[in-house]
Amino acid sequence: MTKELKQEFTLRITQANKTQLITILYEMVLLYLKEAKDAFDEEDKTAYKAAIRKVRGCMDELMASLHPEYELARNLLQLYLYIGRELTQADLHFQKEHLEHVEFIIEKLHAAYRQIEGQDTSGPVMGNTQTVYAGLTYGRNTLTENITDPAANRGFCV
Q1: Rounded Cα gap, residues 15 and 35, in angstroms
Q2: Highest mean pLDDT among 92-96, 100-104, 129-133
Q3: Residue 19 and residue 33: Cα distance in Å, rounded?
Q4: C-alpha pair distances (Å), 105 with each of 54, 111, 134
């Protein structure tokens, strides 16, 4: 993942509600799966294993976000466990087809959560974060980000 993408994800995470956080995690999984597939094509086993490890980290976070008291969460857990088994097979046997199975499932879940995002009117999960405004300035094709009140206390108040 490039530095710019990390910054973009970080900004989106600080301003996301619960549903958007799940969508962002799915996007990160898809990005890491692409990295793994690219590494497979280049026959770079080290990068391949590193990308799968990153996918696993995202999947662990998705599993941790589930509320098992709901039936849907239990069904998603089973799907996530299946994805974990597919990732294990991909890692052990250095096979791209397992990654494609995972990618297919995550793309469907991502599309579903994108539709749900519009219905979630809750505020951002993270509070007390800096507000960032981005827009075009007077320069042609120049994007400038401005942080409001950078000196404000964003830590814990005693």
Answers
A1: 26
A2: 100-104
A3: 21
A4: 17, 10, 33
